[in-house]
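Below is how a single chain appears once it has passed through the pipeline. First comes the sequence as given, then the structure the pipeline wrote out for it. We keep one example in the README because the format questions we get most often are answered faster by looking than by reading.
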Amino acid sequence: MTYTSNTDDYIDLKLSDIIFDEKVCDMVESLETKLPTYLYNNLVDMNTFSLSDDRFDSVLRGYKEGLPPVRVQKILGGKYMLIDGRHRMAAVIVLEGDSIPCKIVDN
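Resulting structure:
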């Protein structure tokens, strides 16, 4: 995947190291793609808005042109919480990636 940020601004994290909300899973499954079983333990039920099909289509089109890295926050156990980038996270899962560039942010 091409990203628009300087590579010094982010690191690649394995998807299995990122905790994300179930809305990402809903988006993946709406595209008739199965969430990999190794990611089931990374799902949290959060009261967030649904992902937009139009926004997701835009992310998929921009995937090769360049996107900003997702933002994550370090939490306990060597895991990271996805803060911003749910559409990008869903795109990587649908396109069968196993890692995603991330910018680690503080609270």
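Residues 53-62 form the longest helix (10 residues).

See the next section for the split statistics.
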